[in-house]
Every structure is written in C-alpha cells, then in structure tokens.
C-alpha cells in the first residue's frame, strides 16, 4: 500500500482519521464523544478570580473552568474572548489564551496581529508574489486589526481556492470578534478529526481519501493502533517503550540483542527519529523523559541534533529541554491531542 492515504472512520464510538504513508501509520486523530473542549474551541469567558502568585485568572466557561496565564488588569465579571490551547491535565482547568487564531487549510487569520505574511517554506519569488497579491485582495474588506498568514499548503494552489479559503476565515474571524459582551458562551467548536485531517494533512496532498465504515479494520489501522500497546520496534532488534504516567511520559530505549560497541548509539538515533511519530499516535504531551540506551557523552550531541531535526518537522509544539544529571533527556510537549488511553475504546 504505497503512497499517502487519509482514512476516515470511527474509533471508540467517535469520528477518527488516520494518515498512512507507504502502509505505515503516520498520524492519528480521535474525537472524544462528550469529552472536554478541544484545542481551537473559542469561548466568550467570564473572569472569575485571580490566582495570586501565578499571574493568571480562572474563567467561567459554559463547560466548566478555564485558566488564563499572564492575565493582568482583568476584573471579576469581565467578559473576554479566549481560545482553548490544549487538553487539560486530569483535575485541572482548561488552558486558554486571548491570542486567537482562525486556522484553515491555506490560511491563518490573526486578530490583533495585523499584517500579511507567507510561510517561509515558500521560497519561489514568483509564487510568493502571486500569493501576496491574492492575500491583499482577500483582506481588502477585513478589519484592519486582522492579520493573515498563508500556509505552505497554499503554494501552487489555484488562486480562486486560496481566495475562497482566506475570505471564509476572514469573515468567520470578524463575526466572532464582534461577540465580546454577554455571558459565558461557546462561539466556535473545536475542529473534529475529519476537519483537522483536511486542514493539516494537505502538505503534500494525499494520494487518496477513503471515508467508509470499516476502513480502519480493512486497511490495517486497527492493527497498528493495537501495536501501540507494546514496544515500538527499532532497527536491529532494538525497541522503545512509551509509557504515560500521571506525572510524565516515560520513554525507555533498549538495544535488544545487539551487543556491539555502537549498539547504544544506533538504537538512540533510531529512537530519536521515530519519537515524534510515537508520541503523535498516542496523543501524548506534557513532560516527557527519555531514558536512552547507554552511550558515551560525546555521542549526545549527535542524538540531540536528530531530535531537533525530527521535532522541527512535527506539527505539535515541543520544547527540547536538555540532558539531566542522570543522563536522561527531557522535553515539554503541548497537550493538543486526545491521549489514546483516554479513548472510550481503551
């Protein structure tokens, strides 16, 4: 099964989307029926109370409580627009921000950040000029406080399709930004799995999109999901265990039967290349600690370079913190996926 294949089906009673690349599960998106508000949901919240010492405030949402960091000058009872930035840790308030983003397949509209920008990955000068002309035309009727970023997926796309996409996001942003007063209310729901797949798996475009009941079973997606319960196989018999706990995600790299002097480095490089995919498929974020296989300290730089390269291409924001005194590597990852272990099917 060669090529880039998007599969839309259900998993655990809710919509789900899988991205298979050359027969290998590359990404997985799962919706939680009746779950917490997902990243991207837009609310009008009401300020509840400040949190002394943390520089933030709790907000009232129609779905519960949210927490806004670095909030100053807000009075209890005040209404403001906020957007969910990630899934809350168990027992904690939903994290939100006042920096709103209206994101679609080709465009991101940015209220409060005016200006028109293009993805830096679009390097062809003629193409950049063509897209800039298109962007300026689409934003002529926009509020001057709205900004626009054209995503890399817009490169080479027909002008009418880009215009339609930008105008839809522009109009949506202007409509939502006008809803500043009133009680706590959901203004825009989070995108579901199918919408996220259409939006974020467009660069490059898939070779085929399959949407039918039972396609996860027929095309090997369910088998690949079941395999996530065990160790992730690496080259030469090495393996990597990814195990979430309440406090953090623990990753353990083993060399397997290879006892050569270079076994540790080879296993660690393979693990570094595959770690972003393994975290994506499991929907894991927060604090992550990697216990790499034994290797010399001089090899750490090589492993760290591979980590930087692979996480740079990963769609989920991840901060590489660095090595601990015990020789572990720490990361901090945004909680913008529903953890697989919290799916109703688990």
Which features characterize this protein?
346 residues; alpha+beta; 5-stranded mixed β-barrel; 7 helices; globular
Structure notes:
- α1 links the parallel β11 (about 115-120) and β12 (about 145-150).
- α1 (about 125-140) packs across α2 (about 160-175) and α6 (about 265-280) runs parallel beside α7 (about 300-310).
- The model has no long low-confidence stretch (mean pLDDT about 95).
- About 25% of the residues lie in helices and about 30% in strands.
- The chain is globular and about 65 Å long.
- The protein has helices spanning about 125-140, 160-175, 195-200, 215-220, 220-225, 265-280, 300-310, and strands spanning about 5-10, 15-20, 25-30, 40-50, 55-60, 65-70, 80-85, 95, 100-105, 105-110, 115-120, 145-150, 185-190, 210, 230-235, 240-245, 250-255, 285-290, 320-325, 330-335.
- A six-stranded mixed sheet has the order 15-16-17-18-20-19, covered by helices on one side. Strands 4-5-6-8-7 form a five-stranded mixed barrel.
- The chain contains seven helices and 20 strands.
- The relative contact order is 0.15.
- The protein has about 350 residues and is an alpha+beta fold.
> Helix segment count?
7
Q: Determine the structural class based on helices, strands and strand pairing.
A: alpha+beta
* Average pLDDT for all residues: 94
- Seen as an oligomer or otherwise, the chain set is single chain
What fraction strand?
25-35%
Low-confidence parts: none
* H/E element order: EEEEEEEEEEEHEHEHEHHEEEHEHEE
Give the strand line-up of the largest sheet. 15-16-17-18-20-19
* Gyration radius over CA: 22 Å
- Principal-axes geometry comes out as globular
- Taking the alpha carbons of the first and last residues, their distance comes to 27 Å
Major sheet summary line: 6 strands, mixed
The overall strand count is 20
User: Helical residue percent?
Assistant: 10-25%
């Amino acid at each position: 099964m060669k090529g880039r294949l998007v599969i839309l089906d259900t998993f655990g009673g809710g919509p789900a989307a899988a991205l298979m690349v050359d027969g290998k599960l590359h990404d997985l998106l799962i919706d939680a029926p009746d779950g917490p508000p997902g990243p991207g949901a837009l609310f009008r919240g009401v300020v509840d109370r400040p949190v002394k010492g943390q520089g933030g405030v709790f907000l009232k949402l129609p779905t519960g409580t949210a927490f806004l960091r670095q909030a100053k000058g807000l009075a209890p009872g005040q209404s403001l627009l906020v957007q969910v930035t990630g899934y809350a840790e168990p027992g904690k308030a939903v994290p939100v921000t006042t920096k709103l983003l209206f994101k679609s397949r080709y465009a991101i509209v940015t209220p409060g950040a005016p200006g028109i920008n293009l993805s830096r990955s679009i390097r062809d000068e003629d193409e950049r000029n063509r897209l800039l002309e298109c962007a300026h035309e689409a934003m002529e009727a926009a509020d001057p406080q709205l900004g626009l970023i054209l995503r890399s997926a817009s490169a080479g796309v027909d002008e009418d399709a880009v215009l339609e996409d930008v105008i839809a996001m522009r109009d949506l942003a202007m409509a939502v930004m006008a809803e500043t007063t009133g009680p706590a209310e959901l203004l825009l729901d989070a995108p579901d799995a199918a919408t996220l797949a259409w939006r974020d798996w467009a660069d490059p475009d898939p070779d085929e999109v399959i949407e039918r009941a039972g396609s996860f079973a027929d095309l090997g997606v369910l088998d690949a999901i079941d395999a996530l319960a065990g160790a992730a196989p690496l080259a030469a018999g090495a393996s990597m265990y990814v195990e979430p706990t309440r406090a953090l995600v623990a990753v353990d790299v083993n060399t397997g039967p290879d006892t050569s002097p270079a076994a540790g480095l080879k296993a660690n490089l393979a693990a570094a290349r595959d770690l972003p995919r393994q975290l994506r498929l499991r929907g894991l974020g927060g604090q992550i600690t990697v216990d790499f296989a034994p290797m010399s300290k001089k090899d750490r730089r090589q492993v760290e370079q591979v980590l930087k390269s692979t996480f740079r291409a990963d769609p989920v924001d991840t901060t590489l913190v660095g090595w601990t005194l015990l020789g572990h590597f720490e990361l901090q990852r945004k909680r913008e996926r529903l953890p697989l272990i919290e799916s109703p099917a688990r």
